[in-house]
Amino acid sequence: MQISAKYQAVLEILSQVMKDKYPADNIIKDYMRQRKYIGSKDRKFITSAVWDIIRHRSRLSFECSSRDPRMLLLTYLKDEDFDIVADGSQYGLQPLTKDEKNKLNNLNQDCYPDYVEKECPQWLYEKINNPSLIESLNGIASADIRSNFVDRRDMKEKLKKEGLFFSLTPYSPYGLRSAERINLQNCIAYQNGEIEVQDESCQIGAILCDVRCDQKIIDYCCGAGGKSLLLGVLLHNKGEIYAHDKNPKRTVNLNLRAERLGVKNIKLIDKVADGDMFDRFIIDAPCSGSGTWRRSPDAKYRLTVNQLNTIKKAQTEILEFASQHLTDDGRIIYMTCSVLPEENEEQIEMFLSQHPNFETVDIQQLWERKLETPYPSTEKRYMKFSPLTTNTDGFFICILQRK
To the nearest whole percent, how much of the chain has pLDDT over 70? Predict the structure, then answer.
């Protein structure tokens, strides 16, 4: 593809992304699926440019005083030769209009406001109230995987023979990390079920559930089932893990994943019946997903105040539901992939104020017993992960039990 045609493809994708209706990742996949003639190098170029523009969307929009996708792209390309990148060829980017040239010659030269500098919508910037954390969430995430029924050091060497280079994650005893994204579809170890994709923070979350095979366990908001699958490994396929999600579409591939990974102790259920009581009620709560902005930088622009309020209401209701289905010595494990206090510690404080018979488990003691590594925080009531402090996705975990 000529360079102008590549940037025309970028514009077509960006035009859909900027509607803020669907995840950019899905839009890119659909676009490429419908254009199988685009070669791998061109796909990589186009995809990289789209994500780069998304990551700098606030600054580009500020400079050109516009949200128009073409204007954002032209601002992104302001130092390029437009006779080449916008040559007007049959499949290429159309030449600049007189008005566009004028706008590019008069870009906003003012200093970025703080929220623009940190690439975050203003209302979310104010809620998080941590510029360094917000900046870290606009970086590029590493690629974390975990070994599955295999020692991770042996797996590291096996992957090296396939030309894939990983380091050991600092906290999870199952984790391996690559500095760059890797396509594992052709990886033999992946096909054989010896590895699975999972961020280190999520691995830690599953480990801190502190499960035993004699316990009745439910992964209540299991989503695609990543934690359920690791719990199955931790239990060596003994006992039973009940997996549930309100949206059955999310669990459609869970049984296939379990089969590939050799996990045999997960049971999908449609609902929790009256009187069902659990020793471990695991809530990977619906949330804003703000902790995963490194992987989905477009998500921050799709989130609205009303959506966040709806999410918070659901979190409160799920916590209340869990408290009604917990054995006397059971535990609620509350997790989110969010960095917003109102989805995390504020939810916990509200729950405790309404349930004085509950208390938080000392996370530091649990961490040191289960992981045998230094605890990377000073807060003992809950643990907060982030790219800034633990080089992981943003993640929150708190464990509650009856006094």
Answer: 100
The neighbouring-strand residues paired with 217 are 241, 280
Q: Mind listing the pLDDT tens digit for each residue in 325-348?
A: 999 999 999 999 999 999 999 999
pLDDT in tens, 143-183: 999 999 999 999 999 999 999 999 999 999 999 999 888 88
List pLDDT tens digits, range 104-137: 999 999 999 999 999 999 999 999 999 999 999 9
- What is the three-state SS of the chain? CCHHHHHHHHHHHHHHHCCCCCCHHHHHHHHHHCCCCCCHHHHHHHHHHHHHHHHCHHHHHHHHCCCCHHHHHHHHCCCCCHHHHCCCCCCCCCCCCHHHHHHHCCCCCCCCCHHHHCCCCHHHHHHHCCHHHHHHCCCCCCEEEEECCCCHHHHHHHHHHCCCCCEECCCCCCEEEECCCCCCCCCHHHHCCCEEECCHHHHHHHHCCCCCCCCCEEECCCCCCHHHHHHHHHCCCCCCEEECCCCHHHHCCHHHHHHHHCCCCEEECCCCCCCCCEEEEEEECCCCCHHHCCCCCCHHHHCCHHHHHHHHHHHHHHHHHHHCCEEEEEEEEEEECCCCHHHCHHHHHHHHHHCCCEEECCHHHHHHHHHCCCCCCCCCCEEEECCCCCCCCCEEEEEEEEC
Q: What structural domains and CATH numbers belong to the chain? A: 3-110 (no CATH), 143-197 (3.30.70.1170), 209-402 (3.40.50.150)
Average pLDDT, the chain: 96
Query: Angle at Cα 292 formed by Cα 17 and Cα 212, nearest 5°?
Result: 140
pLDDT of residue 181: 83
pTM reported for the whole predicted model: 0.92
Structure tokens at 386: 């982030």
